[in-house]
Amino acid sequence: MPTPSPSSQHAAIRDPAVAPRPLLEAFLSTNDASCPVCAYNLRGLTAVHCPECNAPLSLAVTSENLSVGPWSLAIVSWAMGAGFDGVVALLVSIMLIANPAPIWPPYALVAMFVTLALICLAAITLLVRRRRRWAFKPRATQWRWALACLFGVFLAHAAIGAILALNLK
Ligand SMILES: [Zn+2]
Fold first, then answer.
1. Distance 50 CA to ligand 1 centre (A)
2. Measuring CA to CA, how many Å separate 105 from each of 146, 160, 165?
3. Is 56 helix (H, G, I), strand (E, B) or coil?
4. Ligand 1 center from residue 42 Cα (angstroms)
């Protein structure tokens, strides 16, 4: 049997049919809990909608390991790299189509930025496919990896930019 992804597990638990209303009522009868949408105190609530903002409510078991913050930062870091490399490759390609260069360096530049964009896209694919393995890491470790992605992508591009600037003088 295939194991469900963390997000689908989370969705299943949040499904009111799986976490029935009596559990929500029992929890709110003895606990203060804010509406996740409007922050209204739901203690004592007997409905499945927030009385203040009418948002549907459900009881959920979740984990801070599923926090989207570090995972999103890692994805965005690589996506920025892919976007930058893709735009540069496209602009240089358009320039070369308009004015074909008799020498190789501009074509090598396009090949290099296409390769960099593909590396960034491969990293995004890997992150998406390993979402479950990522969730097994403690949140602090996830943030360290996300910051490593951010600074890694930034420093790699800064280094390549510096090398190009020195060689294109
Ligand atoms: Zn509300």
1. 5
2. 34, 15, 13
3. strand
4. 8
Distance (Å) from CA 6 to ligand 1 centroid: 26
pLDDT of residue 166: 86
Q: Is pLDDT at 63 greater than 50 in this prediction?
A: yes
DSSP per residue, 130-160 = THHHHHHS-HHHHHHHHHHHHHHHHHHHHHH
**What residues are paired with 34 via a beta bridge?**
41
Distance from C-alpha of 28 to C-alpha of 139, rounded to nearest angstrom: 28
- Centre of ligand 1 to C-alpha 101, Å, is 62
Residue 166 carries which side chain, given as an amino acid letter?
L
Give the position of tokens 């490399």: 85
Query: What pLDDT, on the 0 to 100 scale, is given for residue 130?
Result: 95
Ligand 1 mean position to 45 CA, how many Å? 12
Domain ranges (residues) in the chain: 1-62, 66-167
**Residues 12-25, mean pLDDT to the nearest whole number:** 62
Q: From the CA of 75, how far away is ligand 1's center (Å)? A: 31
